Amino acid sequence: MKTDLLHDAITELPEDLVLSASGEGKEARRTRLLKVLVPAAAAALVLGVALPVAISNRNKTEFTWETRMKEPEAPGPDENEVAVEKRWDEKAEWERYRSLSLPDREETYDTTGTALSEAYRGAKLGTAVLTGQDIYSVPDIRTREAEVYRIEGISEQVAVAADLDGELFIYRNVDYRPETLGDMIRDYGMEQYMTFLPAEVQSVDKKGRVHTVTFEDFSGNGVFENLLSDGSVPCIFGDEALDVMTKRYVGFGVNIERAGVRNLGVWVTEEGYLVAPLAGPGKAFFIGKEAVEAFRAQLIRECRGVEYIYPEPDDTDGYEEFRTSGYQDAADPVSETVTGVTKTENATE
Predict the structure, then answer these.
(1) pLDDT in tens, 6-42
(2) CB of 256 within 8 A of CB of 188?
(3) Which of the listed residues 132, 151, 173 is the one where a domain comes to its end?
(4) N or C: which end of the chain has fewer CB within 10 A?
(5) List of residues 6+ apart from 239 with CB closer than 8 A
(6) DSSP per residue, 280-336
(7) In sequence order, which residues have a C-beta less than 8 Å from that of residue 130 and are 6 or more positions away?
(8) Pairwise pLDDT comparison (331 vs 313), residue with the higher score
(9) Are residues 222 and 315 in the same domain?
(10) What is the rounded distance in angstroms from the CA atom of residue 197 to the CA atom of residue 213?
């Protein structure tokens, strides 16, 4: 399973709340990072044996986790295959009209492709102009009008609902930029509506090897107590925010269904930054190192971690590949024995 370092977190991460491990050479290339999956789906894929591992990460809290093998994934679509654009009459209405603008407002809202329950229809905001592009016609720009409504519990600064022929669809503000962390929490109704996907922690052992440990039973442990506790923290953007975008230390995925947010990545850096694409692309919050370390410590204390090792698809023996990868030098995955070291020393010497 190949992953991209940024995996389009700057824009929207449509499916990949993926937190990449950095590193060079054969060891890093052979380690495959688990995509954010619901626990049931992940459990169904696990094969092989589970082994205890202990690690100390730059004098941070030491913790143990299991290491498990996974089967190579089936080859995906041909990278050279060109997607064919649907014709206009083949598209649903939300696919045709992908952007929305309201009178007397500067914001542009883009479709999320997510339908909204009628129960969440709020007050009417007005009549909007929706714009779409038909690449098979000249001229190619098409427009229509639609009634637009607030979404109960969600600020219109974040998202609105358009009534497309009797069905509500969510459109999100691409220009959204909160002034503070508290603004983002309130605008999205995060305390009421946010749910969580698995978390991942990156650790470096004493040999400098990067391990990415997945916590599938994570359910927001420590998020509000540590990461979102100070609503006065200002939102930063520009070069300062962009400099920290790739420095993932601990991350997790979130859903806020009524705002059209699904499987969106949120992460913190070791330097103390919270990167939340909920605030818009290229934005972050400096919450401090102490808050980040407190969150990490609570996560590894309360949740169960697993590191997944992905053998190369052409390996004749995935376990042999694992034994030679260097991540568990003294362990034998076949017999489940550890030779020559104690468990707490394993993989840390």
Answers:
(1) 333 333 433 333 333 333 443 433 333 333 333 333 3
(2) yes
(3) 173
(4) C
(5) none
(6) -TTEEEE--HHHHHHHHHHHHHHS-EEEEE---TT-S-HHHHHHTSSTTTTEETTTT
(7) 97, 99, 100, 143, 144, 145, 146, 162
(8) 313
(9) yes
(10) 14
- Whether 124 and 96 map to the same domain: the answer is yes
Q: What is the Cα–Cα distance from 111 to 107, expressed in whole angstroms? A: 13
Show the tokens assigned to 226. 């540590």
Question: What does the alpha-carbon distance between residue 219 and residue 244 come to, in Å, rounded to a whole number?
Answer: 25
- How many H helices and E strands in the chain? 8, 18
The reported pLDDT for the residue numbered 147 is 97
Contacts of 318 (CB under 8 A, 6+ apart): 48, 69, 71, 72, 311
**Residues 325 and 277 occupy one common structural domain:** yes
Question: Omega of the bond prior to 139 within 30 degrees of 0, cis?
Answer: yes
User: Are 281 and 11 in contact, with CB atoms under 8 Å apart?
Assistant: yes
203 and 166 in a single domain? The answer is no
pLDDT interval class at 145 (50, 70, 90): very high
Residues 232 and 341 in one domain: yes
Q: Which domain holds residue 267?
A: 25-76+179-345
Residue 19 lies in a domain: no
Q: How far apart are CA 32 and CA 206, in angstroms?
A: 21
Query: What is the Cβ-side half-sphere exposure of residue 29, based on CA atoms within 13 angstroms?
Result: 5
Name residues whose C-beta falls within 8 Å of residue 297's C-beta, 6 or more positions apart in sequence: 61
What's the angle, vertex CA 261, arms to CA 179 and CA 231, rounded to 5?
30
- Assess whether pLDDT exceeds 50 at residue 109: yes
Cα 320 to the chain's mean position, in Å?
A: 32
Q: Is the confidence at residue 237, as pLDDT, over 70? A: yes
Co-location of 52 and 132 in the same domain: no
Per-residue pLDDT at 101 exceeds 80: yes
Integer Cα distance of 275 and 184 in angstroms: 12
